[in-house]
Amino acid sequence: MATAPKATTPGPCDFPSTIVRATIVQASTVYNDTPKTIEKAGEFIAQAAADGAQLVVFPEAYIGGYPRGYRFGIGVGVHNEAGRDCFRKYHASAIVVPGPEVDKLAEMARKNKVYLVMGAMEKDGYTLYCTALFFSSEGRFLGKHRKVMPTSLERCIWGYGDGSTIPVYDTPLGKLGAAICWENRMPLYRTSLYGQGIELYCAPTADGSKEWQSSMMHIAIEGGCFVMSACQFCVRKDFPDHADYLFTDWYPEQHEEAVVSQGGSVIISPLGKILAGPNFESEGLITADLDLGDIARAKLYFDVVGHYSRPDIFNLRVNDNQNKPVTFVSKSVKAEDDSEPQNK
Prior knowledge:
Elements: E1 19-26, H1 34-50, E2 55-57, H2 81-93, H3 100-112, E3 115-124, E4 127-135, E5 141-146, E6 168-171, E7 174-178, H4 187-194, E8 200-205, H5 210-223, E9 226-231, E10 233-235, E11 259-262, E12 265-268, E13 274-279, E14 284-291, H6 293-299, H7 331-339
Parallel strand pairs: 1-2, 2-3, 7-8, 8-9
Antiparallel strand pairs: 1-14, 3-4, 4-5, 6-7, 9-12, 10-11, 12-13
EC number: 3.5.5.1
Keywords: Hydrolase
Family: Belongs to the carbon-nitrogen hydrolase superfamily. Nitrilase family.
């Protein structure tokens, strides 16, 4: 006679993992038209949310635009009026943070119940910063990260972020932060994120190269985190017509449909598995379900700022103070200073 199977109790390794659905939006800016760019973003966010996304990530400089091919009339010792006017238009497309555009994005996050990471050009007075904006699913603006090191000619048109905007946010989905484009090549910057326990590592970028994929794979394994690299997909006709632009097409056909930013957005697990992408073909959504249990599985063998670190030999110091070019001392401090006897 067959006997009934014995009842079993869950073993110590049977704890369920948390699953987070993440979506990358791979799309082009609507250049010189920030309201339409935000409207386009809203359509993609709604589409991602309808598919169950809990986290939505946009590319570098999506709002305001990555100025690929722009030269702004710049040359050593050259002052070019056409370049100055080009910068005027580019500055006009950037947004103030916080400001009305930030409020609109926060409302999109709330309406669609998603955490949102948005690449944007931020203007602070007349200086521009390449920035990642963070929003909660309740519609709260969490804060921002300003790119600390613009690359190449970017340094002529963008300011430098300081250590006060290198956040990692502890959210219900996981610890969320970002490194923008070639910041991802900066080992010490990455380590500052690892030191804050980053789990959902967003990498908004303008680098659509095949080599970039290797960097993203390495970071996922090194950091024991999920990496979401978001890059725009753009063709020539997406950009304003300007004789001074210098494009390096990915393909030899130089016409309005020629690809000038080929995307390559990708999602990679802490175990080095490609979960979605890379997409080098078109605009669209790249979505994956992230098993957060993979973080612990990966860190069994390698925890870069934990059991695999040697702080007795190597130690990173991060200056997270805000650095301002001008600081005004308050009247009360001035009065206190004035009350002290002066050396004759």
